[in-house]
Amino acid sequence: MTVKGTAALGAVLLSVLAVPAHDAAAAADVDNGPVQGSSVQSSSVRGSSAAKAEDLAEPDVAGLREVLRTALTQGAPGAIARIDDHGTVQNVAEGIADKATGRAIDNADRFRIGSVTKTFSAVVLLQLVDEGALGLDTSVNTYLPGLLPDDRITVRHVLSHRSGLYDYTNTMFARTVPGFEAVRDKVFSYQELVDLSLKQPLGNAPGAAYAYSNTNFVVAGMLIEKLTGKSVRSAYQTRIIEPLGLNDTSYVHPETAIAGRHANGYLTPDEAGAALVDSTEQTVSWAQSAGAVISSTRDLDTFLSALLRGELTSAAQLAQMQKWVTVNSTQGYGLGLRRRDLSCGVSVYGHTGTVQGYYTYAFTSKDGARSVTALANTSNNATVLNTMARTLESTFCGKPATASTAPSATAAATAVARG
Length: 419
Description:
The protein is 32% helix and 16% strand. It has helices at residues 6-12, 61-73, 117-130, 140-143, 155-159, 169-172, 176-183, 190-197, 214-228, 232-244, 297-308, 315-321, 382-396, 409-415, and strands at residues 23-24, 40-42, 78-85, 88-95, 111-112, 266-267, 277-278, 294-295, 323-328, 331-333, 338-341, 347-355, 358-364, 370-376, 378-379. It starts with 5 loop residues before the first helix and ends with a helix.
């Protein structure tokens, strides 16, 4: 099934997730390491990133299982991972989904995907570019008059985290558990979230630097709803979820429950030794189009594989998505898409997600032929976050990962509040 092309999308699909929880804090930006300016490079000039899945070493499933077991020793109640390699699927699971019942966690469980939602939002907007309804280098204020304080902020700046807009979740979740409990059941409008951001000045001139901010993808949600005339939920559903048959994927904001079989999420308090907080039920209204989607390992593998195979946008817009802004020496950010460069010289593409109680890594190879999604049902635990990054090494490099291949503890700690 192919859903790319402006004709098909324009005629049948009109509108289109998120969930950070802490993707915050919303959005755990686990990739929010030292910034080295705002240089942009095309994916076409990266030799290693062109490696095809058939050139990769066999996945190290034993090593992958060891990574998940390590996460459990570090405080995660449970951890799962699913590899899809040219249609051959490997499922690995360790630990529990529900501390109250002791039920084992499984790859059939749904979970909150946090900032992986940002890739869903970016896909919808790039489809709208394909349809001629949106220009990447057009001011956001052209479509949403008066919303932002600088007319120079373009759609591209928003999707690449170069707008300079303050991330309101830095303030909202300055104290992890109290911040979460204050918004667990709250329902925000998009405008209210933007207003929280605009209490602080821009951190940089538009386009000058990469600085991860959930505010950018709140603006993305506003653009989706303005240009499609429909809700973000409808846009995700008709443009991505239904065409790809993502039966475990939903956007239920402002409802608080995860339907069907799911893994409970457990938020780690800031105080050492304090009991984990069950954070499963929440509106995730503080994130919405920046991080409120619910999905499964199977559906995220399917989604990212389809994206990199060119089934969701035109080739031109997929190329735009892969114009990388430097994050640090091993990571780049495109338009709602991350690139991570692994120790074996392979680059992989996808997104990380952090929302209260859940850490997600969802990445695929350049050709979309090998994908992995990994989940630990805890958050605010930088050690677990670092460890879960090693699932990419086991999947794509075919050897046990080492601590040196994961993001630094400092970078991970910063990411805990991003997504």
